[in-house]
Amino acid sequence: MTMGAKNDHLGGPERLAPHVDRAWVRSFVTEQNLRGVAPDRIGDHLATVESHVRESGEGAAEAFGDPVDYARALPAGAAGRVGTRTVLYLVLGLAGMLLVHRAAMAWLAEDTVTWVTAGDLVSLGLLGLGVVVLLVRPAAVLRVVVERPLVAWAGSVLILVALVVAQLALAAELAPLPVLPVAALGVVALATSSLLALRDEEPDEITGPGEAPRRSSVTRRVTVWLYPLLTVGL
């Protein structure tokens, strides 16, 4: 069976290079994304590789070498930056999740008020710090996740432990707030966050030459439902 036959009916970036080994394509695309290369430019590079492989009969590794090295040899994209819409999406999602959770806990305890605790403020600070890191160094964070997944997993566990410890150890009540307004504010924040994600048209899907830029439907669904699902899980 030929490589082209094996790669028939592919989706994602592999569809732009059906004659290229799928593992090679994935490694190449991952490194290009980490280097901030625009999706349409990645598609152009894949089209070049596909054209050469199809016409020459050489494998991609034979013709272009290691996919990561080849990706690094190409021009990098613009320095990673995060727009205002993304900042609002993250901040409102986090705030809504915490507000709804706090109101729900008070309601389950049959209390008419929910209390702001010292642990809440510490937790908010830790989450805010995480958002700042993502905003300032998004590529560095993604590279750790991709290249050192165990380190990324351990870091996530440590953050979660720190949040739990803060809530348990710093439970001193600072101020009472009515449950209903807190819950309503949290729901509004969550809804606004999801709406921002739904209306985000920034293209992120890798497209080939001549194709219109577009946003991945998978990315849209994940970002729209992320914070509501995290809130339910919390």
Unreliable residue stretches: 1-9
> Structural class given helices, strands, pairing?
mainly alpha
| Strand arrangement across the biggest beta sheet | 1-2
Helical percentage:
55-70%
**What's the rounded overall pLDDT mean?**
84
How much beta, percentage-wise? under 5%
Order of helices and strands: HHHHHHEHHHEHH
Largest sheet: 2 strands, antiparallel
Distance between the amino and carboxyl termini = 49 Å
Query: How many helical elements?
Result: 11
> What is the β-strand count?
2
How many domains? The number is 2
Shape: elongated
Cα Rg: 23 Å
Describe the structure in brief.
The chain is mainly α.
Keywords:
234 residues, mainly alpha, 2 domains, two-stranded antiparallel ribbon, 5% strand
Write the layout of secondary structure elements.
Blueprint: H1 3-6, H2 22-34, H3 39-56, H4 60-64, H5 67-73, H6 84-108, E1 113-117, H7 118-136, H8 138-147, H9 149-169, E2 173-178, H10 179-198, H11 217-233
Antiparallel strand pairs: 1-2
Helix pairs in contact: 2-5, 6-7, 6-10, 6-11, 7-9, 8-9, 10-11
Explained architecture:
- The protein has 2 domains: 3-73, no CATH class; 84-233, no CATH class.
- It is 68% helix and 5% strand.
- It has helices at 3-6, 22-34, 39-56, 60-64, 67-73, 84-108, 118-136, 138-147, 149-169, 179-198, 217-233, and strands at 113-117, 173-178.
- It has a two-stranded antiparallel ribbon.
- Helix 6 runs parallel beside helix 11 and helix 10 packs antiparallel against helix 11.
- The radius of gyration is 23 Å and the shape is elongated.
